[in-house]
Amino acid sequence: MFTVMIFFMAFVKTDHKGEAYIGAFDSYYFNTGWTLESGGAVSDVTLPVTADAHMDDWVILRNTLPEKIDSRQTILFRSMMEDVLIYVDGELRSSYTSDGFESMSYHLPSAYVACDIGPEDAGKTIEARFLVKSVATIESVRIGEGSNAWFAIIHENMLLLVTALMIMVIGVAVILFYLFSRERFRIDRSFFYMGLFMVSLSTWMVSESRLRQLIFARPSLSNYFSYFAIEITGVFVCSYFDEIQSRVYHRLYLSLQTLITVQIILNLALNALKVADFFTTLIITYIWIALGILAVITTLIRDIIEKRTRNYIAIFIGTCIFLSCCLMELASFFFSSIWSFGFFICIGMMVLLVTTIVQTALRQEKYTIEREHEKEDSLMNTIEAITGAIDAKDEYTGGHSDRVGIYAGMIAREMAADYDFSEEDILRIRYIGFMHDIGKIGVADTVLNKAGRLTDEEFTLMKKHVEIGYDLLKSMDNSIEGLPEGIRYHHEKFDGTGYPDGLAGTEIPLVARILCVADSFDAMTSNRVYRKRLSDEEVIAEINRCSGKQFDPAIAGIFVRMIERGDFKVATVEGMEVNEQGKVYKSSLLEHKLQVDMKADPDRVFQPSHVRMICYVMKLAEKNDRHFDVFFAGILPEDCGKLGDECKEHAPGRHGVSEELEEAFDAHIRSILGIRDISIDYDIESNIIVLFDRNEDAMKKVREEIKRFEGGKVFIREL
Question: Which one-letter DSSP state was computed for residue 502?
Fold first, then answer.
């Protein structure tokens, strides 16, 4: 745009002293001394003038040529679609009439009509006759040596022509850019229609240019370009605004496009059959353009009311300017003595182009941000899936990874002012917290889920989880800065006695020092097989005791202050994980029961890993707001029911009753449960049953049907 501004400044006339001489191209107006004869009345006039004449009236201008003409000169008259006959001393010197063209329509393309004069014509009478076909406006007359009269006309109209050509080039570039870049940059089709709009508009401007006699080999053919281009522009404008407004008003714009297209076809047919030429039907085109402008204005007003313009605010501003320019163009066509042929639309077009580019950039920015958010959401979902898988593998730390991520984020936010953390940094540290134990995937279940104290050999294997996690992620695209380091070093201690590398002090990455505190805090506030969670006082005392040894003193101090102020929201209650409302998750209740039962009797639960998997499934359901119900059901062993007393003679099964009764009970449950429900053996007393995606009445009905087992008395116990 800066280059364009400099380029346009080149057309501003200034003192050109010292510039290269271009020769003499002098010409002058021959506007005085004319008599005008119209409708039998004769009057003295100065050009330009509008005669009091009607359609098909002849208007005659007369004047006397200069007394001295030193060389061959050219005098230029302007035809505004009129037939023009030029006489010198009664002799026809030049003519421009519809009869002079084969297959030419009644309305001629506007043109300059040149008449050569020489010294022998000095002082003679010159007469120009105009057959009025549109407006009875007679423009200025120029005289110049040779064709010098053209020089001033070229200079006066060059800016508009160059502008039109520039718009055409830019329009083609926009179309090509869209075609080759639409997938990569997700540019919508409004950009494409903008390019078509620019090309068709510039074609019309070039075709209507006052210099078309110098551009076209056959200027008369420019007539076809002119009318067709202005009509097809209406189609592209409708398409453009249809896309800009997200096709909310598609039916309205499609109707206008259809009507304009039908009119174009009809105009071509009428012109070919010589029923009506293009100029005669042009008024209909302007009606459609006016209706199109009205439609756009109406839809814009509606979008303002419904607050949709915020989605295309830059183009909305450009559109308002563009519509104002369109109205000025129409006013110029109908009310001005000199037509602009696109000058005002050109200005509006340039503004609309700039605002479209700005809006495209804004949309691209918005799309990029949305893609980043989608990428973050996808990454977050992947992280949650991985951490869920890790927690599902570990029977004693359910929800640990999630909580460490939450705690790490809370600590980072408290540290933000002193450590210059941005929101992205806080989120990044939280994600690393979620992933810190990913290396446990490679730890044997017998080591990971051992209820008692680990042997030295087992602890050596357990310590390898940080290196396994680091090796898993270091070769991946590091989309989360510091992730591999956070995973590797979160068990390093501030005094250098940690693992795997024995780093000390600030050698340990900051994110790993934060994770060390968050990881330890969750361990202290969660139930374990060997102990209940620590109280807040015990937690504070332990953190203070380990400050400078295990923990970074600065981070430990910040963390203790958060706890003492009550700013730290613990994600557990009684050592069990809770939701945002502070209610204990059912999955956490089941985890807690499993831990208690395993501590009381390691052999009591038949398949702890199966129960742990149910905890994981329940956790996913809770995160996705799926409805489920979980309870225990079994048969009272003292009541064998209809199978009779002989059942007591058999060896007791998992419910303390005969295997036949157990199988009958299992079959009874299977006949009731749906395909997505779960029922597995928990211990010798009961099955654990999980019902999914039912409302309360349906769940209640299932419970009642289970109790109707005819083989014995069934009990149902809540979790």
Answer: -
